[in-house]
Amino acid sequence: MNKAKYLVSKPKNGVGGFVFQCRKIEFNYCERSGSSRGMIEYFKTRLIPFAKRNPQIEIIVTPRPSKHPLVRGTYLNEMQKDICVKNLDPKEIDEYVQLIRDNTGYKAKARFKKPVISTTPSVRGIWSPFNTRPHVI
Amino acid sequence: MTLSLLTRFFKKNNEFNKFNKFNKFNKFEQFSLVSRQDFNRNNRNYVKISKKKINDNEDDTISPQLYALAARLNIRVSHPKLLLQAVTHKTYDNSILPSSEGFRVLGNHALGLYVTEYLHIKYPLIPLPCLQKALTGYCGHVSLATFGQEVGLQHVVRWQPITDEYLYKHSKIYSNMVPEDKPVKIKQVTIANVIAESIQSIVGVLYKDSGPESAQKFIHDHILSREVKIQDTLHLEDPQKELFALMRRKERASPIARLKGESGALSSNPVFVVGVYSDIDQLGEGYGSSKRMAEFRAFRDALHQYYLKEVKDFTLPSSVNSPEAYANFKPTEIGDTTPKL
């Protein structure tokens, strides 16, 4: 029984419209270092088609000199997930970027323990004394 | 006589003002002609003059976050400046765009329309105060603000906290008509308020630009798809009394609670099942670890069964667009909405 002054609605992503959880992907690379070679090739060939296919994600590319290349995803719950893509091919970087795009901000480990999070009751129903079949001799 | 004295003081002070640099420390400070704005710490007026911007158009650029938001929420508008207008709050200074207040009012009413229509048809027998609570649960400021934050609106809205200049323009606080003794209430502007109002403006923009159907789709997709527990709207302190009144109004036999079954009455975990009957028909059922608890739950269940009855298949009147749909439209039965519980 909620006795609060205002009732607040709870989100149900996907029931009506689906809201994509990844809102920003930031790419960091170094102009001179060798580990960023794959990253630079990725920018030239695969990044722009990826950006066009995903208009809901804000994409930022900034140089970060003398550091390994980094892909950092920011989600709607303000969590971030980073992946270092040093010494990788553009194809492998594409897979990691796809991983970040498909993820939500929540930690992956927690979903193994509780795979289903729901506000609706269970499908077969929780046991109640109404629906029992008493034993008859 | 006193008035002439005051005017004499006034005249004297004027001459002093011309030559005396330190006006604030003047003995006749209470009669000085310095404006009230100068005495506040956050004086935006002075700050604005010092940081004068040459090209005001630079402020009305659309950020990439706004484009991303439009794609995320599936908002299709004819011109992206309309969205920028919707997302700019009235407190924002550096914008040439017209105000979003018109869109906000329109969107607020459209929200109210589509949500009320949906709730009223889905729960035909819901009492009026419960309907109003459910309505605020779906499209009130708090709910809209939480929805906006879950979607990323807080990075897109353009607003400013209330400043002296805003007050000077928009309220009577600095006019001579307000007496100094009376405190004037200023509605605080917070990011939550701004987000809620910007969602209303977005709905208004959709309604005006893309048509009412697109506004309805937006509301059904993002706002009505959210969950509000309808049982929480019906707050019952004495369900037995309410049920008796309901039965009397319906001209049916008064409700009687009967023990249907029990198990483990003398043990540590007893279960009693109580049913509430009006003549032969069972109105509600409840279980509990004591008879009183089970009876309470039974009466409450009876009221939930009646008042919060859900209709599963219905057609919304607003979805009737074409003449074929109008010909095939079967209106749902009108329920008996009580004004009070």
Automatic annotation (TrEMBL), chain A:
<dbReference type="Pfam" id="PF05047">
    <property type="entry name" value="L51_S25_CI-B8"/>
</dbReference>
<dbReference type="InterPro" id="IPR039927">
    <property type="entry name" value="Ribosomal_mL43"/>
</dbReference>
<dbReference type="InterPro" id="IPR007741">
    <property type="entry name" value="Ribosomal_mL43/mS25/NADH_DH"/>
</dbReference>
<dbReference type="GO" id="GO:0005762">
    <property type="term" value="C:mitochondrial large ribosomal subunit"/>
</dbReference>
<keyword id="KW-0496">Mitochondrion</keyword>
<comment type="similarity">
    <text>Belongs to the mitochondrion-specific ribosomal protein mL43 family.</text>
</comment>
<feature type="domain" description="Ribosomal protein/NADH dehydrogenase">
    <location>
        <begin position="31"/>
        <end position="104"/>
    </location>
</feature>
<keyword id="KW-0687">Ribonucleoprotein</keyword>
<protein>
    <recommendedName>
        <fullName>Large ribosomal subunit protein mL43</fullName>
    </recommendedName>
</protein>
<dbReference type="GO" id="GO:0032543">
    <property type="term" value="P:mitochondrial translation"/>
</dbReference>
<dbReference type="InterPro" id="IPR036249">
    <property type="entry name" value="Thioredoxin-like_sf"/>
</dbReference>
<keyword id="KW-0689">Ribosomal protein</keyword>
<dbReference type="GO" id="GO:0003735">
    <property type="term" value="F:structural constituent of ribosome"/>
</dbReference>
From TrEMBL, chain B:
<keyword id="KW-0689">Ribosomal protein</keyword>
<dbReference type="InterPro" id="IPR044444">
    <property type="entry name" value="Ribosomal_mL44_DSRM_metazoa"/>
</dbReference>
<dbReference type="GO" id="GO:0005739">
    <property type="term" value="C:mitochondrion"/>
</dbReference>
<dbReference type="InterPro" id="IPR000999">
    <property type="entry name" value="RNase_III_dom"/>
</dbReference>
<dbReference type="InterPro" id="IPR014720">
    <property type="entry name" value="dsRBD_dom"/>
</dbReference>
<keyword id="KW-0694">RNA-binding</keyword>
<dbReference type="Pfam" id="PF22892">
    <property type="entry name" value="DSRM_MRPL44"/>
</dbReference>
<comment type="similarity">
    <text>Belongs to the ribonuclease III family. Mitochondrion-specific ribosomal protein mL44 subfamily.</text>
</comment>
<keyword id="KW-0687">Ribonucleoprotein</keyword>
<dbReference type="GO" id="GO:0004525">
    <property type="term" value="F:ribonuclease III activity"/>
</dbReference>
<keyword id="KW-0496">Mitochondrion</keyword>
<dbReference type="GO" id="GO:0003723">
    <property type="term" value="F:RNA binding"/>
</dbReference>
<dbReference type="GO" id="GO:0003735">
    <property type="term" value="F:structural constituent of ribosome"/>
</dbReference>
<dbReference type="InterPro" id="IPR036389">
    <property type="entry name" value="RNase_III_sf"/>
</dbReference>
<feature type="domain" description="RNase III">
    <location>
        <begin position="66"/>
        <end position="211"/>
    </location>
</feature>
<feature type="domain" description="DRBM">
    <location>
        <begin position="238"/>
        <end position="308"/>
    </location>
</feature>
<dbReference type="GO" id="GO:0006396">
    <property type="term" value="P:RNA processing"/>
</dbReference>
<dbReference type="Pfam" id="PF14622">
    <property type="entry name" value="Ribonucleas_3_3"/>
</dbReference>
<protein>
    <recommendedName>
        <fullName>Large ribosomal subunit protein mL44</fullName>
    </recommendedName>
</protein>
